[in-house]
Amino acid sequence: MNTPIKGYAFAILLFMIVRGIIFFQLPSLVTKEFGTNSWVMLYAYTALVIGHMYLIYKGSKKHKHASIWTIIHTHFPKPIATIFIVIPSLLFWVISFNLANAYARVLQFTSDPSVNIRTISIIILAVVLFTAAHGLYTITKTSVLYYLFSFWIVFFELLQFNDIEFVRYTPFFLKNGHLSFNGILDILGAFLAYETIMFMTPYLEKNTKWITYAALSAFVIGTYYTMYCFLAQGLLPVEQIQDVRFVVLRLYGATQINALEYITDLLFITFIFSAILTASVYTWSGLEGLKTLQTKDRHKENLLIAGVIMITLCYVPFNFDESKLLFSISNIILVCIIVIFTLLYFILPYKDNKASTDTANCDNTTNQAGTTSAPASSSSSSSEGVTQL
Amino acid sequence: MSVVQSDWVELTRKMFVNANDLTVEAILGGQITVMYIHHLLNKNEYHQVITSFAQDSDSDTALKRLMSVWNPLQGHNEQDMLDKIAEHIVNGDIVGVYNNQVGMISSGAASFRAIQTSAKENVITGPHDAFVESAEINASLIRRRIRTPRLKSIKYNIGKDFPFYAYLIYIEGVAEEDVISEACIRMENLHMREVLDGNEVAKQLDDTPFAVFPQWIGTERPDSVTQYLLNGKVAILTDNSPTVVVAPVNFLDFFAVIGDNYERWHFSRFIRLLRLFAFTLTLMLSAFYVAVTTYHYQFIPPTLLETMITSRLRVPFEPMMEALLMEGVIEILREAGARLPTKIAQTIGIVGGLVIGQAIVQAGLTGNVLIVAVASSALASFIIPNYTLETSMRALRFINIILAGLMGYFGIVIFISLIITRLCHLRSLNKEYIDLSYFADFFFWSKEKRPRSVVQKSYFRRGGRS
């Protein structure tokens, strides 16, 4: 029996993985797409996300909390299931690379132009692999601690309400925007990562209505984004805000606390926790997918495959625009996969498959949650009930 | 089995050949032969169990009286019998042979260190007694505090080639069943070549043996162990060691000492926060200095930056090398202070701290600001109550400095990420090492935890002034 993830920890995990790297440019993106007072649109996105979460909840309930990997594996013939599982898994590892790469680029922009993006990406990905290898339970617990380390930063922003100019909120709502399909998807990208719930459901507390915690988390994220967007649109003119690359960092720099001016970049660095967690959850989801297809525990081999793919990508010489394009393409494919998976929940009938697949998968990954009476074969190897990497 | 009386004595002599501390003595006019190792005997008790019987009576009466209090020894065969004789002799008992009958009597333990205050864990408020190098005496110190038959003590021989004894202690109904069964399984499977201290046993029982952080708490204080047992943990007493190890532990347990409970609540919570702060300081301060002076000048206010530049003006090394050098010197001083006799150690401390520190700065090998950082982090490390955890941090600090020197703040954050992930993954006796629900217990004092009979209603509930 694995230790299930508690509701509050699940909510914090979602908060930490959704609050990703796009957050730094979100006010610029929203303003560019929707124009004046566009902060209000972020609640529309939040509502969309919560609605989709509810669909996942209903679908997962129908399949007795089985993960979407298990559902695919039990309903389709092996070749089709393999395609349905391997392609998204590969995509998740590409997304992990994207996140590490994007973070390295922001670090280069904020800290030092001489920062080697490839080296930083590889280091981040190594930490991501290390974290993902420990399984979802450890990732969740880590997210709670990361959250405690970084949540206080938001209070600094509240001090800026004195500096905003209310005249900037007086134009009509949603004027002068340049709406585009890609832009809308880019903004949606700031809310993505919540879809990994589809792989987490077997590990959540069974008697907890996780949708409540998930919705709460999404609402907090929506409010968090809205606050930053609202502040940015009050501090900078609409025309200017679209051209600022990382407008949220500018907000930190404009704070009224003198000491904070000096540590703006340091505050940014704490966001690496979110980047690591998001990439870890995606990597873990990919590993879970591969595991579903395997009869034996090949945790180390799967980690190696994921590592090789992600680090190979680091050696592809992407420039800034190409990286951005890869990010956008990945997002589009991800959205397509999310839609397909959500439909599968409702199209496919429930099939009792516990004995054959789901249980085996659970044991493989989150064994660190531990069986309490695992027999120890020798004195120093008494940690048999604990995940060994 | 017809073996003549002299055979047991001779066989025992052969077994203990070249062991000159074995004494074979014929008493009561040669009617009975006693064998013992005189180093292990308590001389006063020897008089009570042997020579006192011979006083004021003839040898036959004395023999009858003596035999009436001795415990007979029996074995399945000759080898078994010999093993039993040897076991009793090496445990400090007296074995007597009379007319082919073998008996034994305990003469009490040889001298042990008296029960004193622990040199490792100082006490300000609370009981001053500490464990000694005898598992039996240590067990008695615990039993005196927990007077119930529910306090269980299971003896294990954990020696591989030679017998080494350890006791698993827990309170039935308080410790969780799965914790007890896990501890029992691990003890049953434990066979060590040498057991010289309780900490050695703990290392072998770790869930993750190669982890940097300790997964068992070692203590020399009986009141600490009592509290841990009452909180549902299990303890292991090792013979010949004053260190009792306890599990399952939570990471925050290493920052709490029993003395906290004896203080007023506000101070104990404040001091716990201070210890956590000191933990962070120990790990981070020198690394932070290295990161700032190497990469992130923009984080320093101009006046402070000016001071730092002035202090580093004559320093020929990179900040990372400078910090490693100073940390290395501090570690050497600390180790020298720990190994030398107290009076010399004090001198070393003064010489190291004042003379060498001042000389290093004047020689231009390091800057003043770094001396402040290194000294502060060394001082902070002393606040942490657990020595094993402190040593773990001392090693980790060097890694953090190197990462900060290579990558600045980014390196420090990577270091923090790895540490946190590892800590979240660790388990102690199959229980979580970082238990989030424990945070509240650690920081907040609950009135509900006091006995119901003494919990008084609040001022307002009492209805105003009393």
TrEMBL record, chain A:
Return the InterPro entries for the record.
Answer: Spore_GerAB
Q: Give the family, as the similarity comment puts it.
A: Belongs to the amino acid-polyamine-organocation (APC) superfamily. Spore germination protein (SGP) (TC 2.A.3.9) family.
Question: GO biological process: any one?
Answer: spore germination
Q: Which organism is it from?
A: Paenibacillus agilis
Annotated region Disordered: the residues are: 364-389
What membrane topology term does the record carry? Multi-pass membrane protein
The name this protein carries in UniProt is: GerAB/ArcD/ProY family transporter
**Membrane-spanning ranges:** 7-26, 38-57, 78-97, 117-137, 144-161, 181-201, 213-236, 262-282, 303-320, 326-348
From TrEMBL, chain B:
Q: What does the UniProt keyword field contain?
A: Membrane, Transmembrane, Transmembrane helix
Query: Could you state one GO cellular component term attached to this entry?
Result: membrane
Q: Which residues cross the membrane?
A: 273-292, 368-387, 399-421
Gene Ontology biological process terms in this record: spore germination
UniProt entry tagged with the keyword Transcription: no
Pfam families attached to this UniProt entry: GerA (PF03323)
InterPro entries xrefs: Spore_Ger (IPR004995), UPF0353/GerABKA_families (IPR050768)
Q: What is stated as this protein's family in its record?
A: Belongs to the GerABKA family.
The protein here is known as Spore germination protein
